[in-house]
Amino acid sequence: MILCAGRGERMRPLTDALPKPLLRVGGRPLVEWTIARLATAGVRDIIVNHAHLGHCIEATLGDGARLGVAIRYSAEGEALETAGGIATALPLLGERPFIVANGDVWSDFDFAGLVAHPASLDFAPDILAHLVLVPNPPHHRQGDFALEAGRVSLQGDERFTYAGLGLYRPELFASTPAGARAKLAPLLTAAAARGAVTGEIHRGRWEDVGTPERLGALDRSLRA
After folding, report:
1. Domain tally for the chain?
2. CATH classification at residue 124
3. Domain around 102
4. Which of 61, 140, 164, 180 lies in disulfide reach of 105, CB 3.0 to 4.6 Å?
């Protein structure tokens, strides 16, 4: 599932006429970079949620055939936050663990590891999520989680930032009603507190495109 329902307030006025995942860097929309990496890793079935200017997303991505995947959409009348959007899309996602990626993040992360990882979660029913973490960027120096012996924890000597990439079991969202606004952070915090979240560190390139300045810098870098 690729999350594309956010309003992108910090990117205005760019996002007044275009959804944030469709902003272009290196000659193509942000979200297409993620789709291309998923396709390279063997992913074919993708769910995209949308709210703000969702018709633009559907018009641009279509059924995904142009990109080598099959895309279905979970339309939200208004953005339901991350957990709410995922819970609403669960009927499309099925009963096995699924990958979730933020549509406004650019990364050179290789999804092949996450594609192979669901089997290990099937044999570890106590694990509800596997998160990709990155070293803290300048705009988020406090980080989100620590990682100790492969388990995500709330306290630790070194903290990392959640990359907006992960693998989730549907059970994580069992208490989240479809169609309701709900944040992901409280679910992950509660699960991590009881040792139910594993993680890995990605030390390659990762860009949270949260401001027009960061978007411009990334675009110039990719074009170069």
Report:
1. 1
2. 3.90.550.10
3. 2-223
4. 164
